[in-house]
Amino acid sequence: MTPRVQAWLRQAADDLAMAELARRESFHSQACYHASQAAEKACKAVLIGVDVEPPRSHSLERLVEALEAVGLDTQPLRALRLPALSRMNTATRYPDGEEAPRDLFDGRDSEDALQAARAVLAWASQALGGS
Predict the structure, then answer these.
(1) d(CA 33, CA 43)
(2) Local structure of 98: helix, strand or coil
(3) How far is 34 from 15, CA to CA, in rounded Å?
(4) Average model confidence (pLDDT) across the chain
């Protein structure tokens, strides 16, 4: 595994750890945001690992399509709620009208986001040879 792939995986792991910390402290919108970032960076690490420059996109669906295009089995990712996790990238950071993100996300949202992110990171580790 190249140092660049390792860097992306380390950052994905840090984002996941931040998501877990935020959830424990009831910062649910922030937990959702960092979970989304962790999943995105893990997918990009796999793409880099197969010598494909990842698209400049926060869309997990687009990243999964890129992973499929190189022949990887993404069925485990397709079973996750990735569209919802992708939307959390923006919806968790910016107020929508009079509602702040902190008012829109709760403990269930952050737990769902964390579960999906953990699954993506586990899939990425396996796709990269179990490292």
Answers:
(1) 16
(2) coil
(3) 5
(4) 94
Question: Which of 18, 15, 69, 17 is closest to 47 using CA atoms?
Answer: 69
Look up tokens 């949202």; give the residue: 109
Residue 7, pLDDT score: 97
Check if the beta carbon of residue 78 is closer than 8 Å to that of residue 64: yes
Write the pLDDT tens digit of every residue in 2-51: 999 999 999 999 999 999 999 999 999 999 999 999 999 999 999 999 99
Can you list the domains of the chain with their CATH numbers?
3-127 (1.20.120.330)
Identify the CA nearest to 42 among candidates 60, 26, 18.
60
Q: How many residues does the chain have?
A: 131
Helix (H, G, I), strand (E, B) or coil at 96: strand
Residue 25, exposed/middle/buried by CB under 10 A (0-12, 13-18, 19+)? exposed
Distance CA 73, CA 109 (A): 27
